[in-house]
């Protein structure tokens, strides 16, 4: 049985998930947005940062998101940024399918991550990811434009937002350009913690 297609992101209170410029990734605002993750035991384990780290519901959700994911899809912008910032052992540990116009051989990294470059659209990338994931879920990893393409195409089953107490003012909005006439949401779960509020929705055709 095929798994779900989902995305999971951190979002500021004013609706942004990343700065506009790649040069600002890892800048102050982005670090504040993602700060809830950095102390987690799972985050430290996955990036091999050493023992220790915080446990609790935030940590459980981060681990559950990772464990449900059998393959990921991402856009070229996210890959270009990550290629420079990820450690040699990239943090996915599954196949990743990059939607791009660039032709490139698969890029295999230590630890089980292999990046595959798909040149003929989001549906082909998703088909390949579904096959690779088996009965686990496919995560649309980002960035915002790629997530929006999948939402507007009716290809997302569920999503989770970690709503972070940060204001951006400008940047990449998660739902800028969403086809609201086609998309309806069904609340699944809302879990506040000391750091963020985790919101999960099922996506339905309107």
Automatic annotation (TrEMBL):
<dbReference type="GO" id="GO:0009231">
    <property type="term" value="P:riboflavin biosynthetic process"/>
</dbReference>
<dbReference type="InterPro" id="IPR024072">
    <property type="entry name" value="DHFR-like_dom_sf"/>
</dbReference>
<protein>
    <submittedName>
        <fullName>Dihydrofolate reductase</fullName>
    </submittedName>
</protein>
<dbReference type="Pfam" id="PF01872">
    <property type="entry name" value="RibD_C"/>
</dbReference>
<dbReference type="InterPro" id="IPR050765">
    <property type="entry name" value="Riboflavin_Biosynth_HTPR"/>
</dbReference>
<dbReference type="GO" id="GO:0008703">
    <property type="term" value="F:5-amino-6-(5-phosphoribosylamino)uracil reductase activity"/>
</dbReference>
<dbReference type="InterPro" id="IPR002734">
    <property type="entry name" value="RibDG_C"/>
</dbReference>
<feature type="domain" description="Bacterial bifunctional deaminase-reductase C-terminal">
    <location>
        <begin position="4"/>
        <end position="195"/>
    </location>
</feature>
């Amino acid at each position: 049985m095929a798994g779900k297609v989902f995305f999971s992101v951190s979002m500021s209170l004013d609706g942004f998930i990343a700065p506009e410029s790649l040069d600002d990734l890892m800048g102050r605002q982005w670090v504040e947005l993602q700060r809830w993750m950095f102390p987690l035991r799972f985050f430290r384990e996955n990036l091999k940062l050493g023992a220790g780290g915080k446990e609790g519901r935030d940590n459980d959700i981060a681990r559950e998101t990772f464990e449900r994911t059998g393959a990921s899809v991402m856009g070229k912008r996210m890959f270009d940024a990550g290629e420079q910032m990820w450690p040699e052992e990239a943090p996915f540990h599954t196949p990743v399918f990059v939607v791009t116009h660039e032709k490139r051989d698969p890029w295999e990294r230590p630890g089980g991550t292999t990046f595959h470059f798909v040149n003929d659209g989001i549906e082909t990338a998703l088909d390949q990811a579904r096959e690779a994931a088996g009965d686990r879920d496919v995560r649309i990893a980002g960035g915002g434009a790629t997530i929006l393409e999948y939402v507007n195409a009716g290809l997302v089953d569920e999503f989770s937002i970690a709503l972070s107490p940060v204001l951006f003012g400008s940047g990449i909005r998660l739902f800028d350009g969403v086809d609201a006439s086609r998309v309806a949401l069904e609340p699944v779960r809302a879990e506040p913690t000391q750091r963020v509020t985790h919101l999960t929705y099922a996506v339905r055709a309107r």
